[in-house]
Design a protein that fits this description.
Radius of gyration: 22 Å
Helix content: 25-40%
Mean pLDDT: 93
Strand content: 15-25%
Largest sheet: 6 strands, antiparallel
Number of helices: 9
Oligomer: single chain
Distance between the termini: 57 Å
Length: 331
């Protein structure tokens, strides 16, 4: 079996999320940096072995063909902007995702800083978010986040590409969004109204039954089923983030891993467009998506020994067996 990146871990107290774009001419530096990441994490993690340090890297659709020759993950595609009757899920730039998590922020910072220094001018950082665990795994709005995540073998199955795409078995698809919350509007709601927006009790973290749960609640619109009615899972690793004082943003960095992007795309369609159309996620009235990107996280084996870089156009011209340009006779 391929050696997957370490995505499934216990819940850590800190995380750093970096979304980068690759500058023109930076492809070879990025390829080298991808190969170096596994060793960097091992070296830094050895300083505090019990801190559960891990780093996951994902590659966006447009960047894939700039970095690698040969086949590509069959379902890798850009994040699609969703525009509903009231709310929008924007698509924003993103060629690379670095998701670092550990029990200590200094370790996350060290990985992020050393890796981006390694990449240097080959990349531009378009989003940097420092996440923290909030009390008993609650979001800043006061509700427990990630309750419905699968565990054990079900979690592995939910995030791992299998025989349906054998060239990339062991990899995972990733979607990210950053949400900015209007806490003035949210905190003005009665607790009962907040619970109706989520579909779960706030203090006890108990999901409402189907007869009580509003059809536009966050939980009701985050359930995706297959043709037989079985629920399809993703693994969310969301983290709160934000500035304490002033007008700085605060909210949730959403990140979900899956074996195919279809389930995340359907969840977001239900949230922003609605099911039926117009029945959008009530939580969106209080929190706004400001970014959105999609990636594929290949196996650690792939990162350490990637396929060859794509051939340059000049290489194609020079590859004709007779040394000609391959464009026929000039008259």
């Amino acid at each position: 079996m391929p050696n997957s990146q370490t995505i499934l871990t216990r819940k850590t107290s800190s995380a750093v999320f970096l979304v980068l774009t690759i500058n023109d001419g930076g492809e070879e530096t990025v390829r080298d940096g991808l190969s170096d990441l596994v060793g960097l994490v091992s070296s830094v993690g050895s300083r505090v072995p019990d801190a559960a340090l891990t780093a996951i890297v994902g590659v966006g659709s447009a960047a894939w063909d700039r970095l690698f020759s040969g086949p590509r993950p069959k379902s890798l595609r850009p994040f699609t902007e969703l525009t509903g009757s009231v709310h929008t899920a924007p698509a924003t730039p993103g060629d690379l995702l670095l998701h670092v998590k550990a029990d200590r922020m200094d370790l996350c910072f060290e990985i992020g800083q050393r890796w981006t220094e390694r990449l240097g001018s080959a990349v531009t950082t378009v989003e940097e978010v420092h996440g923290f665990r909030y009390f008993d795994m609650r979001d800043l709005i006061g509700f427990v986040d990630g309750t419905e995540n699968p565990v054990g073998d079900e979690a592995i199955a939910a995030i791992t590409v299998g025989d349906e795409d054998p060239d990339f078995a062991g990899g995972s698809y990733v979607v990210t969004q950053r949400y900015v919350t209007d806490f003035g509007a949210w905190n003005a709601l009665k607790v009962e109204d907040q619970e109706d927006a989520i579909g779960r009790t706030k203090l006890e973290n108990i999901e409402m039954d189907d007869d009580t749960k509003p059809a536009n609640s966050h939980i009701a619109l985050n359930v995706v089923t297959d043709d037989d009615g079985n629920e399809i899972d993703v693994v969310r690793d969301n983290m709160p983030y934000g500035d304490i004082a002033g007008s700085g943003d605060k909210g949730t960095f959403y990140i979900a891993y899956s074996s195919a992007p279809d389930v995340s795309e359907k969840m977001l369609h239900k949230m922003f467009i609605g099911e039926p159309e117009g029945n959008y996620d009530r939580l969106l009235d209080f929190t706004t998506a400001v970014s959105g990107a999609q990636f594929f996280a290949p196996t650690a084996d792939f990162l350490e020994d990637p396929p060859a870089a794509p051939a340059a156009a000049s290489d194609t011209f020079n590859s004709m067996p007779d040394g000609s340009l391959g464009i026929g006779a000039l008259r």
